[in-house]
Every structure is written in C-alpha cells, then in structure tokens.
Design brief:
The complex is a heterodimer of chains A (about 110) and B (about 110). With about 110 residues, chain A is mostly beta strands. Helix content of chain A is about 0%, strand content about 55%. Chain A contains no helices and 10 strands. The chains are: A mainly beta (about 110), B mainly beta (about 110).
Chain lengths: ~110, ~110
C-alpha cells in the first residue's frame, strides 16, 4: 500500500522568500504525481501534474520535481506571497484511479 | 461551468440515521470519485466510477454505497451513520486528462 509523507507539516516564512516542500512515497510504481492546494473550508485545486516519465513541471512561480526511483518529489515556490498561504498536498497515482494523499504542508506567508 | 458541486455543505446526523451526499459535475467527465478527509489525515478514496452504471470500491468503502445512473451525478449513501463517519467528504471528477477536479466538500458530524 502506498504511504505518502510530507515534510514539514507546517511552515511559516516572510513574504518574498523561496521555499521547498518535500514529499516522499513508498511505492515507486506510479503513473504520475500531482500537487494540490487546499484553502481552509474549500476543496482541492490542482497545481501541477508530473507524469512518471518526467523529471519536472513548471507553472509560473511553481516548479515540481520528481525522482520516481527514490520515491521523492519537491514543490518549489519562488518569491512567496501572502496569497500562497494554504495547505499543499502531494498525491502520487498508482493504478488508473488510485490517488494517495499525504497529510499536507500548511504554509503561512507573512506580509 | 459550475464544475463539481456538492450538497449539503454541512450536516449533523444522529447515530443510525441515513443520508445521501449529492455530487454533480457539468464537465461531461466519465470518472467520478468520493474521498473522505479526517482531521490531520490525508484524503482516502471511498468509491469511484469510470462511467454511468459502473462503480468500484476504493480504500475505505465500508459503511457506504454509491450509484451512477447518469454521467453528471454520483451520490454517496450512508445507511447507518456511525461516529467514525464524522469527516469531510469530497467529490471529484476527471475527464480525458489525469487532473481531478474537486468539489467544495460536505462536512458531516455524527453524534
């Protein structure tokens, strides 16, 4: 069974700082890995999807990398802003319909 | 497009009562999913459907039932509510790509 760990559990940074969120997973036989953002009391929003054959994916100030063989992914956020404050969830997909979620990293960006 | 909508937003149930959580999507997606998110835990897959008339169990299906009579709707039924089913329930859908689109969630409290 896939186990997903996200470190740190919480992170507080001043505005403008670059930061890295970490995700590790136990089963490297994945189809893809997705990063989601969750705002309090709301649903999840997909940020980036990395296919198993890819090493990284970029969208604006976000860059996600994937090292499938070692079971690791990182989400890099450049020049953080207060609007980036949210919980970030990592979810590797094993099987056609099985997304396994980590417990998330709760990010606070201080103005 | 409204995307994925869920009703109700919040509900309190007594032990043993039953209820149906509604989920509707207007994106003509074939795939639909139900997850639950317990406090401090990652989302876990309850049931999923790959098209109208086809459903399958996820990681934590016990105590729940689903049906998929149309492409748009994927209701989740709780027959005999138990305190262990206190959680936030998310519905999601997916089209031809790999990205899942989530609804805003239903918060359920069983007392």
């Amino acid at each position: 069974k896939q186990e997903v760990t996200q470190i740190p559990a919480a992170l507080s940074v001043p505005e403008g700082e670059n930061l890295v969120l970490n995700c590790s997973f136990t089963d490297s036989a994945i189809y893809n890995l997705q990063w989601f953002r969750q705002d309090p009391g709301k649903g999840l929003t997909s940020l980036l999807l990395i296919q198993s054959s890819q090493r990284e994916q970029t969208s604006g100030r976000l860059n996600a990398s994937l090292d499938k063989s070692s079971g690791r992914s990182t989400l890099y956020i450049a020049a953080s802003q207060p609007g980036d404050s949210a919980t970030y969830l990592c979810a590797p997909q094993t099987g056609a319909n099985n997304l396994f979620f980590g417990t998330g990293t709760r990010l606070t960006v201080i103005p | 497009n409204a995307g994925v909508t869920q009703t109700p937003k919040f509900r309190i149930l007594k032990i043993g009562q039953s209820m149906t959580l509604q989920c509707t999507q207007d994106m003509n997606h074939n795939y639909m999913y139900w997850y639950r998110q317990d406090p401090g835990m990652g989302l876990k897959l309850i049931y999923y459907s790959v098209g109208a008339g086809i459903t399958d169990k996820g990681e934590v299906p016990n105590g729940y039932n689903v049906s998929r009579s149309t492409t748009e709707d994927f209701p989740l039924r709780l027959e005999l509510a138990a305190p262990s089913q206190t959680s936030v329930y998310f519905c999601a859908s997916k089209g031809s790509g790999e990205t899942q689109y989530f609804g805003p969630g239903t918060r359920l409290l069983v007392l």
